[in-house]
Specification:
Distance between the termini: 24 Å
CATH superfamily of the largest domain: Carboxypeptidase-like, regulatory domain
Shape: elongated
Number of domains: 2
CATH architecture of the largest domain: Sandwich
CATH topology of the largest domain: Immunoglobulin-like
Strand content: over 45%
CATH class of the largest domain: Mainly Beta
Strand order of the largest sheet: 6-5-8-9-32-31-34-35-28-27-24-25
Number of helices: 2
Length: 445
């Protein structure tokens, strides 16, 4: 899902300084992680440019404010550039660029204080390597018959942002099987797992299931899974390149029932999945991908106590197929207890076109839009639309951030109850994002 600018672009904190506008003092205010404050704009704009999800300044970033004659400037050692001009009033389009980062444009900015987070252009995150076993694996009853197998899938806890590249790190393979698994069949048994993990504070867990091949060993699409249990390690903090060996995940009883109720699949998006997540704060989110939950059903998950103290969230997703990423519609249930109910889907933007002008049809119920231009694994340009605009052109910059070749334009509509485009913060966005839906188009530039 391309929701990274929805989830990571907004936070609110205060900082000092001072410039005087036509109607009085307007002080620079850092919106930590990115966001908007202090509407309306009246002759003064303060713009910070920072690393994503932080207050770390990007020094020397180029900033441009669209006008009859565009205003341009470069950020100082605090990541700040300020503009004072009588024509600064109403809504504005602001663009920032910096070496090694994707260009970022926000359309419809209504506040005098703006903080733009610039994502790294590369989506390859730093990694650590972890290996270990599951204590008690050999005590699990052997699978019954050649059609059944015991599977343990080991995962690191994800970041809160569902589209963060840290959440989709490629795992090593051995003989066609990911090495972050334990597998027992009628003829083999191995539980020496190896995993590429993100860096930072996290916990490693395993979901253990009985798999049924339905007699088609070469076709995984029809396999069904029955939950056996879970295993978990201790919270740890990893650094880039670190290697951890002999981590033993201990079996943990699944004691908390969770029922899921989803609306019917929207037209053209028949594949529905629901994924519970146990949010642990700084340690990230434990994801429960198996057994898969579809339109309705229930699963027993880990009790949110002790080392696993937190609360449950639910991500529901509808796509054309299990392998397709777009178009999509997703919905979120927060602070789930017992039953998670999704009321309705948000329609994905349609008629997505790209080139000299970018456009799409509006999604009823959307409060704002984000868009992204990518080439392969490189993010070229992030766009946030705060004023309902569904057709826009990007400023001509030199050098051109888009470059040449085949480019993907992906647009996402977001439904955030009580969202105020003139003042927003990332904790509120995380807690209240209700629905998101997206589509994409490919063009040659």
């Amino acid at each position: 899902m391309r929701t990274h600018t929805i989830i990571t672009a907004f936070a609110l904190a205060a900082c000092g300084g001072g410039t005087t506008g036509p109607t009085g003092p307007v002080d620079p205010k850092l919106v930590s992680g990115g966001g908007v404050a202090d509407a309306p704009v009246d002759g003064v704009l303060h713009i910070y440019v920072v690393e994503p999800a932080s207050a770390t300044p990007i020094v020397g970033a180029n900033v441009r404010v669209e006008a009859a004659t565009p205003l341009t400037g470069v950020t100082d050692t605090t990541g700040l550039v300020s503009f004072t001009d009588p024509m600064l009033a109403g809504l504005h389009t602001i663009t920032a660029t910096a070496t090694g980062h994707a260009a970022t444009t926000w359309i419809g900015v209504a506040g005098a204080n703006v903080t733009l987070p610039l994502d790294p252009a590369s989506k390859t995150p730093p990694m650590a390597q972890v290996s270990g076993t599951i204590t008690g694996w050999n005590n699990i009853p052997a699978p019954s018959g050649f059609n059944h197998y015991t599977l343990g899938v080991v995962l690191y806890s994800f970041l809160d942002d569902p589209s963060a590249p840290e959440n989709v790190i490629t795992q090593p393979m051995s003989g066609g099987t990911p090495t972050d698994t334990c597998l027992r069949t009628a003829v083999a048994n191995n539980c020496a797992w190896q995993m590429n993990a993100r860096i930072g504070k996290q916990i490693h867990t395993a979901v253990i299931v009985d798999g049924d091949t339905k007699g088609t060993n070469s076709d995984l699409s029809d396999d069904t899974y029955t939950l056996i249990g879970y295993a978990a390690g201790n919270v740890m903090t990893l650094t880039a390149g670190q290697q951890v060996t002999n981590e033993a995940l201990t079996m943990v009883s699944a004691t908390t029932p969770l029922a899921v109720a989803l609306p019917p699949a929207p037209s053209g998006l028949p594949h529905i999945a629901a994924i519970p997540e146990l949010a642990l704060g700084d340690a990230g989110r434990i994801v429960f991908p198996l057994p898969p939950l579809a339109a309705s059903g229930s699963v027993t998950v880990l009790a949110p106590t002790g080392n696993l103290a937190g609360h449950y969230e639910l991500v529901a997703l509808a796509t054309p197929s299990a392998a397709a990423k777009a178009p999509f519609t997703s919905a979120f249930a927060h602070n789930v207890s017992g039953t998670a109910t999704i009321g309705s889907w948000l329609a994905a933007p349609a008629q997505v076109t790209a080139g000299s002008t970018f456009s799409f049809s509006p999604s009823t119920g959307a409060t704002f839009y984000t868009a992204q231009l990518t080439k392969g694994t490189t993010t070229l340009w992030n766009i946030t639309v705060l004023d309902g605009t569904t057709s826009f052109s990007l400023p001509a910059l030199s050098p051109d951030p888009i470059g040449s070749g085949s480019i993907t334009f992906a647009v996402t509509a977001a439904d955030v109850p009580s969202f105020d485009a003139a003042k927003f913060d990332v904790p509120t966005i995380k807690q209240t994002l209700a629905r998101a839906a997206g589509a994409q188009a490919v063009f040659t530039h």
